[in-house]
Write a structure and sequence with these properties.
Chain lengths: 105, 453
């Protein structure tokens, strides 16, 4: 099955709140919204971030702006102010999500 | 239709004040609103106040650079730079205005967000202060609490504007509140007009992180963003009916389009149907965004729901220490050398009885920003930095750990360098969020105004 890396289809920004990270995911083309909705499920995102994210992943559809919002719990080694990680603020989670491969067609 | 133009001046403590000057000079704004407090900032300010009771507010170039130009243009300033000591910040601005010869300036200071002295009383009253994230009981941290501040809304700031304030300084507020206040004041919105308040909150949210809505930290075609060296901070043109346009000052760099605005719209948002603030619960799934011209995005149709009964309190507590050190290795086999150094230090920590709660080894240049998601075997990297971070309960161990790294330059794998990367131990602050009844906080809010004579 042909597959592409998500970075070809969308842009993303992540941010922190406590020990939670959220990632806004924005398809470049309207036509890819349904594809991403089908492929980039909360379950797959949790699997993708195994080892970085301990808690649950929730996906919200924000169809008015053709976007998705992923909320990743237990994602920051305790939160920015107590994290040992270089990326203590979760700034790179969006970029890391864009490395996911998705099946097309 | 009535409208008001509001500009963003600061997205965090440490942000560049120069784009704020562009906003004041060429943004055609009546207000400059700033967000100086990240979640962690109060912990830093609390330490500053412990050393000197006059400190504990955000001290930077902002007022030195902006106060005079704002006064000349008649631009009013709203900021939460008061941190843990809003009165201290008020005195600083007062003295600065006097030294600049600015007369008749009215400085308002708003307090009441600090609930640290009230925590015991709240517990006695049966307020559940369990952590919203972990569900943990407050008794587990109560002796280690460093600060406890409620997020205030825009109302006290609107009252200060009604009292004629030119500069408004607060402590902890919800991030978009400084932006919402001038809209409510200028456009006459009522406190139960949820849709308009939500529209104001959305615009505030789009401006609270300075250039993050105008092309900064943009993950799309960032290489095409024009003139990032003089990027423009956002400016909002807000209308009486809640419609609004996000733009930036003429002649500045950056880009305002659907993509840059959308990235900021979801930044640090959880449930987009319920973005909770003290003044309104905003529904980010409701508005329509349209490009109506170069660097102009029009936002309409925003919906809101009634404000929450409780206010969020952010509590910081002391949570041990971090020791940190870095060693760098060059090609050939840079990653292999760094891994060997990890093996050696692990054995040495064990032999020396260095105990810790948690340890993290990162390979800078290979996996420090991606962890287990890193790809490739890293066999032919030009260089790799080994970063060791350790969590301990005592400061001494955190200070001692990085001292084991420099000897590896002579006693370990070849080409180790850069062992100057021994960081001083850093106190770690755990964050705790709880809800308290709104009234318990609002009844202690005070607004004081002082005029520079």
């Amino acid at each position: 099955m042909p597959r592409v890396m998500l970075v070809e289809l969308a842009h993303a920004r992540s941010g922190d709140k406590g020990n939670t990270v959220n990632i806004g995911l924005f398809p470049y083309r309207e036509a890819d919204y349904e594809l991403i909705k089908r492929e980039v499920t909360a379950e797959k995102v949790k699997e993708h971030f195994a080892g970085l994210v301990d808690g649950e992943v929730t996906r919200y559809e924000v169809s008015n702006i053709q976007a998705f919002n992923f909320v990743l719990r237990g994602a920051l080694n305790g939160g920015a102010s107590r994290s040992l990680r270089s990326d203590s603020l979760g700034k790179c989670f969006g970029a890391n999500l864009l490395r996911m491969y998705v099946d097309i067609e | 239709m009535k409208s008001v133009r509001i500009g963003a001046g600061q997205g965090f403590w440490g942000d560049s004040p120069f784009p704020a000057l562009d906003v004041v000079r060429s943004g055609n704004v009546k207000y400059l609103a700033c967000d100086a407090l990240a979640e962690l900032t109060l912990a830093i300010l609390q330490k500053a106040r412990q050393k000197d009771p006059d400190k504990g507010y955000v001290e930077d170039l902002f007022f030195k650079l902006l106060l005079q130009p704002c006064r000349q243009k008649g631009v009013k300033i709203l900021t939460n730079a008061g941190g843990i000591n809003p009165h201290g910040a008020g005195r600083m601005v007062f003295e600065l205005a006097r030294s600049l010869g600015i007369k008749g300036l009215k400085i308002a200071v708003i307090t009441g967000d600090d609930v640290l002295p009230k925590l015991a009383e709240l517990r006695e009253k049966g307020v559940d202060l369990s952590d919203m994230e972990s569900g943990g009981d407050i008794s587990t941290i109560k002796d280690r609490i460093v600060f406890a501040n409620a997020y205030l809304g825009a109302k006290p700031m609107v009252e200060a504007l009604e009292m004629g304030a030119d500069v408004i300084i607060t402590g902890r507020t919800s991030d978009p509140a400084q932006f919402l206040a001038p809209m409510v004041y200028e456009l006459g919105w009522s406190w139960d007009d949820w849709d308009r308040l939500a529209a104001g909150i959305l615009m505030g949210h789009l401006m609270e992180c300075s250039a993050q809505s105008t092309g900064g930290n943009f993950s799309g075609d960032w290489w095409n963003i024009p003139d990032m060296e003089r990027i423009g901070y956002p400016v909002a043109e807000v209308y009486e009916n809640g419609d609004a346009v996000l733009t930036k000052p003429e002649g500045t760099g950056g880009r305002v389009d659907l993509r840059t605005v959308k990235e900021q719209m979801l930044y640090e948002v959880h449930d987009p149907t319920a973005y909770i603030t003290p003044d309104v619960v905003a529904d980010f799934t409701s508005p329509r965004l349209v490009v109506e011209g170069p660097d102009r995005v029009r936002i309409t149709g925003m919906k809101g729901k009634p404000r929450p009964e409780n206010l969020k309190v952010s509590i910081g507590y002391s949570d041990g220490w971090m020791g940190e050190g870095t060693l760098k290795y060059s090609w050939p086999n840079a990653l292999k050398k760094a891994r060997k150094a990890e093996e050696i230090t692990r054995k040495q920590f064990a032999a020396l009885g260095i105990s810790f709660d948690e340890i993290l080894f990162e390979y800078v240049g290979y996996n420090s920003l991606s962890g287990p998601l890193a790809t490739g075997d890293g066999a032919d990297l030009n260089e790799v930095g080994l970063r060791i971070a350790m969590r301990t309960s005592d400061k001494m161990t955190a200070a001692r750990m990085p001292r084991l790294l420099p000897p590896l330059a002579l006693n370990g794998p070849p080409t180790a360098t850069g062992s100057g990367g021994m960081a001083r131990p850093r106190e770690l602050i755990g964050m705790w969020s709880a809800l308290v009844p709104r009234d318990e906080v609002e009844k202690q809010v005070q607004i004081s105004i002082r005029e520079v004579g």
